[in-house]
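Hi R.,

Here's the input for the N~2~-sulfamoyl-L-arginine complex you asked about:
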Amino acid sequence: MKFLLIVGFWISILIGNQECTPEQAQVFSITARTEEEVEILRNVSSDYETVLWQPAAPSHIKANMEVHLFVPAASMTTVKGLLNKHHMTHKVMLSNVEELIEMQTRNDSTDPRSSATYYEKYHSLEDIYDWINITIQDHPEMVQLILIGSSYEKQPLFVLKLSGKESHPKRAMWIDCGIHAREWISPAFCLWFVHYAISFYNLNHDITEMLNNMDIYVLPVMNPDGYKYTWTKNRMWRKNRSRQEDSFCVGADLNRNFDANWCTEGASKRPCDETYCGRFPESEPEAMAVANFLRSHKNVIKLYLSIHSYSQMLLFPYSCSYEEATNHQELNELAHEAAMNIRRYYRNLYKYGPGAKTIYLAPGGSDDWAYNLGIPYSFTFELQDKGQYGFLLPPKYIAKACNEALTAVKTIAMGVIKKTQ
Ligand code: 0X9
Ligand code: ZN
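And here is the predicted structure with N~2~-sulfamoyl-L-arginine in place:
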């Protein structure tokens, strides 16, 4: 008995110590109350090897806004010290970062689509390329492969063109996933969507209508280099992996590299920043490939969708200015209907509205650029969750996140088909 007590005592000391100086990275939730605290938080989040999860850049931090900050183990003492020094409190949102990363990368099968749960897992870039091959082989009647360009590191940018079997549509829609490397639920959604469209064509009414009335172009991973890097080197990476001649820092934010008020307030000119806009509009091969494809299909593409995470939002133009889109009313109605359906069928809440007013001013985004090109219906979806797991959403939530996003896609696509009859 005495022995057990002594062992228990030492275990509690060990656990206690671990709580003081954790060996793992953590994600903090911090809310600045005053302008002075905002300044401190901006400094902490742009330094000490921390990674800002939400918002995307320190300049977006405002008073009374919930900020999500990834703090690596090595910076923990310094960051906590700084917050304490300024009497700022924080909540630990995630304390088991490594465990969550392990869960997300577990079972990345090398045998594509061998199991029923393939779509409820995250997959490496290699695996996604295998999946693309098998998908086109298995469904040549519905799926066509288009190479639209290649990434900075020369990875192919493949688009899958989905078409109904007996349809000759004059319209099309576009979906891209994985602009931001760390938003893993996004490529998972593109795979989910393609699988669902193929499996339920002629079985589900909305899918059949969609494919009979529109061709659907799907780019499963727009930022393959960044995505690969999140699997192999740094799970928190956001940008692509292009190098600049005059900087040691790598990568540009592809969603700041399009020609929509390029590099004005809300984007950064500094190559080391997470929202670096690149050297000039479309300087990045991934953004240029997408822009070229959309330009050459601008007469047929009526709906543009870009899938991101996290925060559960359906955004539409403009994000690059506070100006109202000419068809604001229509965009708002479509987003409202989609959010209502998510609430009705999945009991989950999505905010919606123009990007600049709903989250922050963020120029150079693909949605605004596509809209200005003449694609009249353009949306960015921010999928689950609201920050409980953030980018580390466990695989068991993939199904629900994708199903509700699918509901939104179907709602909006059906609305657009009606409007463009
Ligand atoms: O900041 C972004 O690029 C997007 N949010 S994220 O957290 N996924 O990084 C929002 C994009 C909204 N649209 C534009 N900024 N054009
Ligand atoms: Zn994103």
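One thing worth noting: The longest strand covers residues 301-309.

Cheers,
M.
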